[in-house]
Amino acid sequence: MTSLSRRAFAGMGAATALSLATAGLAAPATAAPIAPAPTAPDRTAPDPTASGPVPLDIAALRAAISDLSHPEATAAQLLVERRGSRWYGTAGTAGPVSGRSVRADDRFRAGSVTKALVATVVLQLWAEGRVDLDAPITHCLPGLALPARFQRVEVAHLLQHTSGLPDHRGLPDLGTPEAVLRYRFDHWTPRALVATVTRDRLKFRPGHAQEYRGVNYVFLALLIEELTGRPYGEVIASRILRPLGLTGTRIPGGDPRLHGPSVHGFLRMTDGSLRDVTVYDQSAAWGEGELVSTADDLFRFQEALFGGVLLPGPALRKMVTLPAVPMLDGTPARYGMGLQAATVNGTTFWGKTGETYGYRTRAFATPDLSTRFVLSYTPTALNAGEDMVERVAGVLTA
Does residue 51 sit in helix, strand or coil? Predict the structure, then answer.
């Protein structure tokens, strides 16, 4: 099979789906791999509405997630469906105390998958005629008193990562796992996050290039609050979570804990020890990377999104349309509005990557939902490789 590049699903450098505070991370010292724990029994359930399900290669899928040494991880879970056949499998354990297998209703930090929900709400508001995607953000967010140069940045530019916003100033250096622990309870307000990108000139003319930037979605979450008069997390709950019955998903706000059954995340320190980073103030990723969710919930969100439940056709098409501009490195654009594209062995997936310390999520589907997956695992390195998602995607597209 053709190898799935890290760029395709997660990007490189600034294009990675990390929270705002992860810029400039450095890889920790090499440590001995974690031995895989016994895996949980298969949970296979063919879709009863499908005719003639295509069998999945369960042995290959199980092997893809059971290798917890490449990259080093403490646990993994995978929920997949291809043409009517569905499978759920796990490897490793949910936490050091329980030692139990991971379950599909276990909560984990889904990182930048947050952006897919934020974009969905913004496009709902656009479909309702409540926001103009061509409007300058200075007009939409008058209370921020943004610099005059930001008048060139439009709502659509934020959604597509074509805004050209300046680099951050004033974020802590989290280049070591020790620094992550040191700063993990720092609390950020959205206005403080916005202030880190208002001191310099725009990096490029808005709409003329693409650069993945989490701060774009900080502005969009503020826009949701401006238009609705409610916290953006409450708006997501009322428009997406409650209607779909996604009871394991929430926007935590200032709450650093995962409540209820959950998967623990860990980081490997430079001295080789493992530290639990499950409890973490996610406010540095406000609006763009703080989502807590479950494999089951993300699978249901995926189905509702591509099934037309959440958005009318014109709005959904905007999510899966790439702008005709290059990335800053000259490669073709790969982000629509809230989603990103990746082609593996001739199959084009749309979805979202998500990362935060100790957690990594990959939720992708073909727009017709014929092939889709939610992969969540807990890598212990700051900059873990994409080996696991490459293995999974390779099996599904072989």
Answer: coil
CB 78 within 8 A of CB 374: yes
Query: What is the Cα–Cα distance from 236 to 251, expressed in whole angstroms?
Result: 8
Q: How far apart are CA 359 and CA 382, in angstroms?
A: 10
**Is the Cβ–Cβ distance between 102 and 96 less than 8 Å?**
no
**CA gap 159, 322 in Å, rounded:** 11
Residue the block writes with tokens 């919930």: 297
Q: Could you tell me the end-to-end alpha-carbon distance of the chain, in angstroms, rounded to an integer? A: 7
DSSP labels, 24-75: T--PPPP-PPPPPPPPPPPEE---TT-SSPPPP-HHHHHHHHH-TBTTBEEE
Side chain identity at residue 17, one-letter code: A
Residue tagged 């899966």 (tokens)? 320
Is residue 99 classed exposed, middle or buried when 0-12, 13-18 and 19+ CB atoms within 10 A define those classes? exposed
**CB-CB contact of 354 with 112 (8 Å):** yes
CA 65, CA 75: separation in Å to the nearest integer? 9
Signed CA dihedral, 131, 135, 137, 138: sign only: negative
Residues 320, 335: Cα–Cα separation, whole Å: 8
Extract the tokens encoding 273.
Answer: 């020890």
**Residue keyed to tokens 């105390």:** 97
pLDDT per 10-residue tile (average), the chain, 398 residues: 36 30 26 38 47 83 98 98 96 91 97 98 98 98 96 98 97 97 97 97 98 98 98 98 98 94 97 97 97 98 98 98 97 98 97 98 97 98 96 96
Tokens of 89: 């499998």
Q: How far apart are CA 206 and CA 252, in angstroms?
A: 32
Helix (H, G, I), strand (E, B) or coil at 361: strand
Exposure string for 193-215, b = 16+ CB within 10 A, e = fewer: bbebbeeeebbbebbebbbbbbb
What is the token pair recorded at 13? Answer: 């450098």
Q: What is the DSSP string of 226-262?
A: HHHSS-HHHHHIIIIIHHHT-TT-B--TT--SPPSSB
Question: Is the distance from CB of 380 to CB of 73 less than 8 angstroms?
Answer: yes
How crowded is residue 88: how many other Cβ atoms within 10 Å of its Cβ? 23
Give 28's contacts (C-beta < 8 A, 6+ positions apart). Answer: 176, 177, 267, 268, 269, 270, 381, 382
- Burial class (CB within 10 angstroms; exposed 0-12, middle 13-18, buried 19+) of 271: exposed
| Residue 6: burial class (beta carbons within 10 Å; 0-12, 13-18, 19+) | middle
Q: What are phi and psi of 169, to 5 degrees?
A: -130, 135
